[in-house]
Known about the structure:
Layout: H1 5-13, H2 16-28, H3 33-53, H4 59-80, E1 89-95, H5 103-114, E2 117-121, H6 128-138, E3 142-146, H7 154-165, E4 173-177, H8 183-189, E5 193-195, H9 198-209
Parallel strand pairs: 1-2, 1-3, 3-4, 4-5
Helix pairs in contact: 1-2, 1-3, 1-4, 2-4, 3-4, 4-5, 5-9, 6-7
This protein binds cobalamin.
Cobalamin binds at residues 42, 45-46, 48-49, 52-53, 59, 62-63, 66, 98-105, 107-108, 144-146, 148-151, 175-180, 195, 197-198, 201.
Amino acid sequence: xxxxxxxxxxxxxxxxxxxxxxxxxxxxxxxxxxxxxxxxxxxxxxxxxxxxxxxxxxxxxxxxxxxxxxxxxxxxxxxxxxxxxxxxxxxxxxxxxxxxxxxxxxxxxxxxxxxxxxxxxxxxxxxxxxxxxxxxxxxxxxxxxxxxxxxxxxxxxxxxxxxxxxxxxxxxxxxxxxxxxxxxxxxxxxxxxxxxxxxxxxxxxxxxxxxx
Length: 212
Ligand code: B12
């Protein structure tokens, strides 16, 4: 049973208005933003995915659930990104080419900002060249890649190779994540780390920067 069942239900049903109002009410009652995400919102999206797989939900339901999730996250974002004074490092992040899923990537970006990182978010459907160019332009020390589709995962390997071809692989740490990604896959393609969720992403990023 999710901790805030009204919020869970609102996202599951794609009810944006209730998702927003229940988030505001929960915060007013002192709920922790990270707990709201981890205990109610992410489980709701997991259930949406399960229903989609079981042919109980179709693309329109995915879309309205995603809209409700994003609406609630919009309210939490400023709270998740409150940061300390000293920047810990710079990270370029994006969802790989062919992939339009950005809820998880946005959450990771917010939490990294909250963890003191400067985040350059390239958005969705990002090509290997765009990642390389962004690192050149910003001198970022780290790259975060997100993929939610098994069909777009291979793009991560191409991106690792693109950094090698550009002579930048030794200069950047590459962290990958997304529902189909595993540690084994990270090892296989030569990424530096795999993060299961947004919280782990922050811990890993700190480790990669040698600041923990
Ligand atoms: C919402 C959703 C959509 C929305 C996306 C809206 C948006 N703006 O993001 C829409 C409707 C657009 C969509 C479209 C499609 N989707 Co979709 N979608 C989902 C769903 C239900 C939820 C994803 C989500 O937001 N989860 C919540 C977030 C918080 O979790 P997360 O993304 O996993 O992110 C966390 C971690 O993975 C990790 N993480 C993520 N990125 C990164 C990056 C780094 C660096 C690190 C360290 C960590 C990390 O941290 C995050 C936070 O904790 C999933 C089901 C699921 N359970 O994943 C299906 C799912 C991913 N979709 C699926 C499919 C098939 C599709 C479509 C092909 C459907 C279609 N027929 O058109 C299209 C593809 C469009 C495209 N080209 O990308 C399948 C993929 C199957 C597969 N094996 O590849 C899934 C798994 C559903 C299913 N069970 O079948 N989808």
